[in-house]
Records
---
Amino acid sequence: MAQASKSTRLYLFTSAWANTRDLVEIIRSNITIDWTVKESGKANLRRLVKQNW
């Protein structure tokens, strides 16, 4: 199997890092502390991740 070039590996790493950073930002901005809405909050986070991934 052919080796990926250094620039390709750097691009993939940078892209993965950017995607991870975006997902963390989405999750942090939508976390609720109210435990009475725990299940709906989890469902909302799953929905947001699926929409943005």
---
Amino acid sequence: MPAPSRSEQVAPAAWARVVVRPDATVVGGGHDEDAPDATDEDRTWRETMLAAVLQGAIFAGVKVAVDRGGAAATRRLTGTWPG
């Protein structure tokens, strides 16, 4: 099995940072530290929506960084900006 990608490692860590308080109690009750799925019956709308928004923001940020880095590398190699 391949190692998890960087975004797969960041999303759970970011979710844990948002949900877990400094005193290690979990907001919203005794849930684990994993991000909830949309179909988790014991999670609230607020928890699932927050998880989805956070995951989307992380995904978008990583995508922009990769796209921008690729464009910059193309410019260095060819002298022109792609697109």
---
Amino acid sequence: MTLHTEPTASERRAALEFTYPGWTILRLRATNRWYASRTSPLSDNQRAAGVVAGFTCDTYDEFTAALAEQAELVDRCGGYRP
């Protein structure tokens, strides 16, 4: 029998940073929240499209949904080039 364990916060963070290379991902221990910030400045086009420089979420599921939404907006604006 194989036991399945939940990934640690560090493992989740590493996977997210690999999946979303334009973001720095942190798990804020003091508040138990997830935080993402862009690794490069936003262009005017990205800002107008609703891309944000950073955000926090209470749960991992909320965070991954918000990160995916932001990545989609970035892709519509030409990708992660500054």
